[in-house]
Amino acid sequence: MQQKLTRNAAAEFSFFLAVPTMCAATGYKLLKGYELLNAENIKLLLFGNVVGFIVAIIAIRSFIGYLSKHGFRIFGWYRIAVGLIILGLYFANVPLVVA
């Protein structure tokens, strides 16, 4: 938004920025567990990717439609609230990551 982009363009740009990160994480995970890949697991992996892609397209279109009507304000307040909750849990010595 600081670069004078529309809400839709800013949201689409952020989704495009996420693609290389997700691809790198997926590649790393596949390299780590390559010995577990067999014909059946590859079929499940492909099916999961197709379903995930379809759900992601629906979610992105819904999100961009919402943004074009309502803006970013609710997401800003959501991020502040979640950040405060996480900080509170951290300072209360609640473990935030389950190993």
Shape: extended
Termini gap: 37 Å
Beta-sheet strand percentage?
Answer: under 5%
Secondary structure category: mainly alpha
Characterize the main sheet: none
- Spans where pLDDT lies below 50 across 5 or more residues: none
SSE string, helix = H, strand = E? Answer: HHH
What is the count of helical runs?
3
Strand elements, count? 0
State the helical fraction: over 70%
Mean pLDDT: 86
Radius of gyration: 18 Å
Structural summary, described in words:
With 99 residues, the protein is an all-alpha fold. It has 3 helices and no strands. Helix 1 packs antiparallel against helix 2. The longest helix is centred in the middle third of the chain and has 32 residues. The mean pLDDT is 86.
In brief:
This protein is 78% helix and 0% strand. With 99 residues, the protein is mostly helical.
Keywords:
single chain; 99 residues; extended; mainly alpha; 3 helices
Q: Layout of helices and strands, plus pairs?
A:
Elements: H1 7-32, H2 39-70, H3 73-91
